[in-house]
Design brief:
The chain contains 13 helices and ten strands. By secondary structure, the protein is α+β, with helices and mostly antiparallel strands. It has a six-stranded mixed β-barrel. A hairpin with a 2-residue loop joins strand 2 (92-108) and strand 3 (111-120).
Length: 400
């Protein structure tokens, strides 16, 4: 059977090439979208892991609204005392209050770099998973004395000090009009084009609020609980505490957001579902376009090979044999084009990912889609030409 298929291909090179190209283009686009969407989802999940946001974590942020929605107005109602009150609950293992400023300039001599500045407590290091590479993290003494000290990351070191030497403990950097002594450098958390966790600078929350910005509120806090099974019950309890402390009446919306790992996973899944719907639409279009290409070219092939089909029928080939031959040719061509598109997609995306830092993830999914796509397209759209070939009258075509 394979010899007959390859012989047919060699005799109809141009038509075979057109069929392969049709499936190739469709599979290339479909595989690329699957690989890129998987890479994007994987990148988001890895970022969450680097944040240390596990199933035992509850994130409380100031301001009402959706999960990651941009706040249209600031709120100053979330206080440090709220964190202390929540920490008293028997289900709480630890609470880490914090505030932050995105993209604030830090200077070292003539160098400057925009960092993400965090005001934090000592427990931030353990609860958010920030192990120290050199020096130490903030301690309670730093908080009490409102010390002008900081802990920095790899990206900040590289851009401010222009060196690969990460140990910059003891040196001073300037933020606004204050000089901060570097007391620690945390281990690299992993950076990407979209998220750079290694550009963070941590200073005592007391220094951040009372000296640098003169705030009496915080941006948020992370709460780690001791029993993940009752997480929803704990969220409800925290909500009641905060509403009572903020004097919110019945019917008033919360002036805070409570986020769990379940909320984030649902958010990622909703984003993935939208991509899945897009993939389904593209698959249907690709399916039809590739199939119609195969259908038309196979019909042309049948017309050209009328005499060959007639001779095979005259020599004893049944209608079933003819259908099987043309179906196999159609499926083989479709599969070949599909795998060619998949391989080209993988090679192309690997090159682009290295050049442009684009995140991709290659799983079994594109391979499975390719096999199914190739077989189904070849079988469905190859059946009509195969059936037409089986109905050829050997007597008429041989004597024609």
């Amino acid at each position: 059977m394979l010899k007959e298929i390859f012989k047919s291909f060699s005799l109809n090179k141009s038509l075979t090439f057109l069929m392969i190209i049709g499936v190739f283009i469709s599979t290339f686009g479909l595989s690329s979208i699957i690989i890129i969407s998987n890479g994007t989802k994987n990148e988001i999940i890895n970022v969450l892991k680097n944040f240390g946001f596990g199933y035992d974590s509850i994130l409380i942020l100031a301001g009402p609204g959706k999960l990651f929605a941009h706040q249209r107005y600031k709120t100053t109602t979330l206080k440090l005392s709220d964190a202390f009150e929540i920490a008293r609950a028997d289900f709480v293992k630890g609470v880490s209050p914090f505030s932050r400023k995105f993209s604030i300039r830090a200077n070292y001599r003539d160098s400057y770099y925009n960092v993400d500045l965090f005001g934090a407590y000592p427990q931030f290091s353990t609860l958010h998973n920030y192990p120290i590479m050199y020096g130490r993290f903030l301690n309670l003494k730093d908080i009490k004395t409102k010390a002008k000290v900081c802990v920095i990351g790899k990206t900040t070191v590289t851009n401010l000090f222009k060196t690969k030497n990460m140990n910059q403990v003891g040196k001073f950097i300037r933020i606004k009009n204050l000089y901060f002594k570097i007391i620690g450098v945390y281990k690299p958390k992993g950076s990407s084009k979209r998220f750079d966790i290694d550009r963070r600078v941590f200073i005592p929350l007391s220094t951040y609020n009372d000296i640098l910005f003169h705030y009496d509120y915080i941006l948020g806090m992370k709460v780690v609980v001791n029993n993940t099974k009752n997480i929803e019950k704990y969220v409800s309890y925290i909500e009641k505490i905060l509403r009572k402390r903020h004097n919110l009446k019945k019917g008033e919306i919360d002036d805070f957001r409570i986020i769990t790992s379940k909320d984030i996973i649902n958010f990622v899944n909703r984003s993935t579902d939208q991509l899945s719907k897009l993939l389904i639409g593209i698959s249907i279009i690709s399916f039809i376009v590739s199939g119609l290409t195969i259908l038309n070219i196979m019909l042309t092939t049948v017309f050209r090979r009328m005499k060959e089909i007639g001779i095979r029928r005259a020599c004893g080939a049944t209608r079933g044999n003819i259908i099987k031959q043309f179906l196999m040719e159609s499926i083989f061509t479709s599969l070949f084009g599909a795998f060619l598109g998949l391989i080209t997609s993988i090679i192309t995306l690997n090159i682009l990912s290295k050049k442009f830092q684009m995140k991709i993830l290659i799983t079994f999914e594109p391979f499975l889609v390719t096999i199914i796509f190739g077989i189904v397209v070849g079988m469905i759209f190859g059946f009509i030409p195969a059936f037409k070939a089986s109905k050829v009258d050997p007597v008429k075509v041989i004597n024609a």
